[in-house]
Amino acid sequence: MFRLRLVPDKTNIKFMKGRFVGLAVSAFLSIASAILFFYPGLNYGIDFRGGILMEARLQQPADFPALRSLLGGMNLGEVALQEFGSPRDVLIRIERQGDDDAAQNQAAQRVRSELTAAYPGTEVRRVEVVGGKISAELFTSGLMAVAISLAGIAIYIWFRFEWMFAAAALITLLLDITKMIGFYAVTQLPFGLTAVAAVLTIIGYSINDKVVVYDRMRENLRKYKTMPLRELIDLSINETLSRTIFTSVTTFLAMIPLAFMGGEAVEVFAIGMLFGIVVGTSSSIFIAAPLVLLTGEKWLRRQKASETEAKSAPAAQRP
Predict the structure, then answer these.
(1) Where does the pLDDT of residue 1 fall: very low under 50, low under 70, confident under 90, or very high at 90 and above?
(2) What is the bridge-based pairing of β-strands 79-83 and 89-95?
(3) Dihedral angle of Cα 274, 292, 234, 252, to the nearest 10 degrees
(4) Distance from C-alpha of 53 to C-alpha of 122, rounded to nearest angstrom
(5) Which of 24, 217, 243, 288 has the fewest other C-beta atoms within 10 Å?
(6) What is the pLDDT of residue 2?
(7) Among 146, 52, 156, CA closest to 106
(8) Distance, first Cα to last Cα, the chain
(9) HSE toward the beta carbon, residue 306, CA cutoff 13 A
(10) Cα–Cα distance measured from residue 35 to residue 186, given in angstroms and rounded to the nearest whole number
(11) 135-139 mean pLDDT
(12) Distance, CA of 31 to CA of 40 (rounded, Å)
């Protein structure tokens, strides 16, 4: 019976030979992402910037020039229109109307009335109104959620493994997060709570891959006590490579329909996930393990030597 093999059963790829190149490329992309965060910056969504988001379905294909003229004459400031789904579906974004939440609700009601009057039968399917105070609180909460998740993961890895594994995992996750921020800055996808959810999901997905590799490294450290650490890490990555690739491919394929057919509310999450899966998988192979080699090689070897001496000491004392 034919079986698709994305990765051979046994591989012997020397990943550690390219560790410096991988780390340099990752550092460059993260620095570039940090620059992109300030310029051109993120396209903050309604959640973080405040304003009005409306989803309307017309009875006929949308005439965007006429819609812009209609809404532009209402003196509501910047109005952005976007088609999604069918040609009859229109997404309307309106900038925040001052700091008063009541003004936001009044503007949303005005837009609804104008649309139904100009285009009879229009169905307003969704209205989201976010005031300035709420958007600031949501932004702060989003940052806190990311920070708490990173702290929790670092503590978990520290207790389950050793400090160098926790340090390597945390550094790798920070590099992954900065790359995702750069991705949203380049694509100018709306960065709101949905994007934060994608970042948090990728953090969990990425650390799961790294824990699998770290577990295999710890098992091999006990099994191959004289093997050079560089070769041991290569062996551990190769032994888990098939599982890593298959998990990433299946998750990637599951996200593709959401990215292209899920609508505006879902595509921000799904497209971010597609990019994050690639980043998280590559960092598990090329970044996380090399960082353990760079930060903890001497300590791991010293720990192994002390364990070997402790086991051999009772035998040496026997008569």
Answers:
(1) very low
(2) antiparallel
(3) -10
(4) 16
(5) 24
(6) 46
(7) 52
(8) 61
(9) 6
(10) 11
(11) 78
(12) 14
83 CA to centre of own chain: 26
Residues in the chain, total? 319
More confident residue, 161 or 319: 161
Q: Which has more confidence, 305 or 101?
A: 101
pLDDT digits (tens, 9 = 90+) for 290-306: 888 877 666 655 555 55
Taking residue 149's Cβ as centre, other Cβ atoms within 10 Å add up to: 17
How far apart CA 112 and CA 73 sit, in angstroms, is 14
Of residues 125, 179, 170, the one with CA closest to residue 151: 170
pLDDT for 210 beyond 90: no
**DSSP code of residue 15:** G
3-state secondary structure 17-83: HHHHHHHHHHHHHHHHHHHHHHHHHCEECHHHHCEEEEEEECCCCCCHHHHHHHHHCCCCCCEEEEE
Q: Which two tokens stand for residue 284?
A: 């598990």
Residue 154, both tokens: 């670092």
Distances from the Cα of 273 to the Cαs of 186, 195, 200, 245, 255, in angstroms?
15, 9, 10, 16, 7
Please state, in angstroms and rounded to a whole number, the distance separating the CA atoms of residues 285 and 241.
8
Cα dihedral 301, 303, 304, 309 sign: positive
Measured CA to CA, the distance from residue 90 to residue 61 in angstroms comes to 9
Give the angle 250-184-205 at the CA atoms, nearest 5°.
35
Task: Judge whether residue 96 has pLDDT over 60.
Answer: yes
pLDDT tens figures, 232-254: 888 988 988 888 888 889 999 99
Cα 38 versus chain centre, distance: 19
